[in-house]
Amino acid sequence: MTTPAPQSRTIWREGLWRNNAALVQLLGLCPLLAVTSTAVAGLGLGIATLLVLTASSVVVSLIRNWVPQDVRIPVFILVIASFVTIVELLVAAWLHDLYRTLGLFLPLIVTNCAILGRAEAFASRHPVGPAAIDGVAMGCGFAAVLVVLGALRELIGRGTLLAGAEQLFGPVAAGWTIELVEGDLFLLAILPPGAFIGLALLLALKNRLDDRS
Amino acid sequence: MAWPTAMRSGTVLAIFVGLGLTLVAGVYELTRDRILAAEQQVVLDRLEAVLPTGYDNEPADAHFERPSPIAGGPPARVYPAYAGERYLGAAIEAETPEGYAGPIRLLVGIDAEQQVVAVRVISHRETPGLGDGIEASRSDWIEAFAGRTLGDPEAAEWKLRGDGGAFDGITGATVSARAVVAAVRQVLEAVAADPEAFRGEPPETAAGGEDNGEASGEA
Questions:
Q1: Which of A93, A100, A103 is nearest to B38 (CA)?
Q2: What ipTM goes with this model?
Q3: Chain A: which residues have CB within 8 Å of chain B?
Q4: Is the pTM of this model over 0.90?
Q5: Would you call B129 and A66 a contact, using CB atoms and an 8 Å cutoff?
Q6: pLDDT tens, residue by residue, B47-62
Q7: Which of B152, B127, B148 is nearest to B138 (CA)?
Q8: B26-35, Cβ contacts within 8 angstroms, sequence gap of 24 or more
Q9: Domain boundaries, chain A
């Protein structure tokens, strides 16, 4: 079952760029498209996903030799679902405004196939060290896309950046919002179609950068 | 051969179910009080929006419980508003089980003439992008209740337009909108049936109450 573990540099490059969960594997697009109307909401869901992905990768890797093949998927899902519920409870207790903004998408992290995908494709075949790095790298790659797409849509749609930062960082951040233009700009960007257009632009940009090198 | 394998798989699965449950239950216990406090804060933040203006008591501290005005809901909380000893109205926090994806908790503000001041959603699990249109932060649909009474529209008209009533629906979220309209109507009916029961006690010392009211009103 265990294949030779790749070097951590390779894992980082795969997670952040070459095999990015959102831009290359195109996994977890439902939350990606739905919550990225602002950069802060994207960051919040990104961090939650990162936490769940890392924790579940570590646990799945630790138990990989004990779990019989035929029940491994249910066990992985149980592990993921437990961590999602824990993260949801913690966010509800300490970041309640963010909890209300993310709404149903927080518990829906459990259905993000990027997480089960990494558990099955990487963590269940590698020792705990590389699995942890893979979880962090994939999570960061996914969170980065959420933040970039959120920032892009917020900027084009409302002319602001970091609106609602206090939901994530507390009252200190209330003044962090940068208002570049007064009033709403290009409303389409914050509506659902804007999410698809924004994601398409990011995909095109990534493919173009890859083609050049 | 197949039996021992199945046993082993089943046992492993059962162990993980047990571990997962224990872990989640533990975190739930640890976070429960904080989550309740945070949810209460959400109610307090919305009280000002749904209460008639000019009150000088502490509706949050004066709250009391009533049997649910909405069929099938848990007991409701009433936050009465007073200016001195004059009753201005009350905010009623009630829950309807008729939501699309679980209960919807509402804060309904009603003045002394039994007219709706405003309605706010406290919590819900409706579909993002569709049913969450009932939230004031997502759309202004909920503002349609402001100024309504049981006579405006007529009791029979307290329905969605699609059901032959006077209220606009929300596209793609008929169930959510219908639940909210029915819930607000039932709250109004409960108040109309027994207005005294929603008044609570007027604040005892007007002077002391005034100071408190202003201090916390600005905080």
A1: A93
A2: 0.77
A3: 34, 66-68, 70-71, 74-75, 78-79, 81-82, 85-86, 89-90, 92-94, 96, 99-100, 103-105, 192
A4: no
A5: no
A6: 888 998 888 888 888 8
A7: B127
A8: B27/A85, B27/A86, B27/A89, B27/A90, B28/A89, B31/A89, B31/A90, B31/A92, B31/A93, B34/A93, B34/A94, B35/A89, B35/A92, B35/A93, B35/A96
A9: 8-212
